[in-house]
Amino acid sequence: MKRSVNPNRNISSIILPPRITLTAKNLPPRITSTPKLGDHTVEPNIGLVSTAKNIIGGTLSRFIGKDDDEYKECIQVTFHVHLPQHIERFGEPVVVGSCKELGNWRMVRILLTQPNKREFPTYWRSQPIEIQPSKDEIKYKYGVFDRSSGRVEFEGEGERHNRTLDTKTNDQYDIWKNNNRFRIFNLNEFAFIRCIYDAVNDENLKDKVMQFQLLLTNHRTHTLNFMTLDFITQRYQKKEKRLFLSVLLGYYIIDKGSPAFIFQLPKQFRSELLLEAFEHVQQDTFTSDIKPIIAPVVAALVRHNAMVMISFEWLRIFRVAQFVDPAYTFVDEFIGAHYDKKYISRLLKEWPEIVKPHLDRIDESTYIKIAKWLISCCSNMETVNIMSQYNIEDTLLRSNNEICVDYVVNALMPAVHEDYIKTLKKLI
């Protein structure tokens, strides 16, 4: 008879059932001998799904069944965990849980490996594992398996430290729960943000943003501590990941800011790269809860691009403002910009094509604000003529608003007067 061992008893380890045997072909390559327990062979990888099978199917759920007529939905799960440093000296890190795929608390099926030991020496992960969801919650724990004794020493203290599998996501991001023997005192690394970032592509932005939000929920302090501006600036060369980096930047700005705080990007920041990424945003690119996170990012990028870089990639935001900043708060970020003749000419040239088609969506007060700023940029008759050449006055004065008309007259009078004085001086 097999012995059933409950990991939640007030002991720190379990002895695996001695009568279960695994063939040598399923052993990890580094194992050269089979440990013994009494008169029976004990092997931790009982029923281990081969690596080749585990990696099939990507991160999407798929349907499998016992026969052609019965199909059950399975999810593919990867476990990610930070363990105490050098824990591998005491045994093999494993995951054991309450479902068949995780060993039913009796067998070791899932071994953990270190994918990047040099950069993240405490980060371990499993191969993707197909798990059939249950009507009951699936519980699991991390542990250290000693092949010589057949024991698994679990994290935490008893049943109260059991974890619950989150079946809504394909990746479980955890940090070891200290027990009497193995402890994490200070976590000097945090691989999870990098893991999520590396997996981002054009098709899974929403899923990866959701995973990052779960990271904030479950490990907020570590996530915010390791989510630095350097992390963003070192990685925005990859186009397919820039919108995800924009989300990270939004959380970074909110975490560092306050109601009276105006976030300033560093001078060398490549704001044009993230602004270009926003040009492809659609109504469903971000979920509704992310849009308030994105608006401060748009404001910071527009301010940097217009005021620091003296560039015009910020004009593109008008095309997608209804999706990323429907209140058009970013308008306040370029109002203070003043350009010389060279730049005002370029601004007025690009305005009709990029901005004009989208002005009808702007409310009257914001419209007047933009009109006043644009007219104020015309410091002499030459720039006024440029504005006329590109039909800017028609673009701006869409209505007979008296405030706009009065402002245009008052703003242009000094420019007319200045050119008039210059003409008189030439004649004298």
UniProtKB/TrEMBL annotation:
Domain of life per record: Eukaryota
InterPro entries hit by this protein: Carb-bd-like_fold (IPR013784), CBM20 (IPR002044), Ig-like_fold (IPR013783)
Classification via PROSITE patterns: CBM20
Molecular functions (GO terms): starch binding
Domain CBM20: 69-184
Cross-referenced Gene3D superfamilies: Immunoglobulins (2.60.40.10)
SUPFAM superfamilies: Starch-binding domain-like (SSF49452)
Name the UniProt record assigns to this protein: E3 ubiquitin-protein ligase
Species of the source: Gigaspora margarita
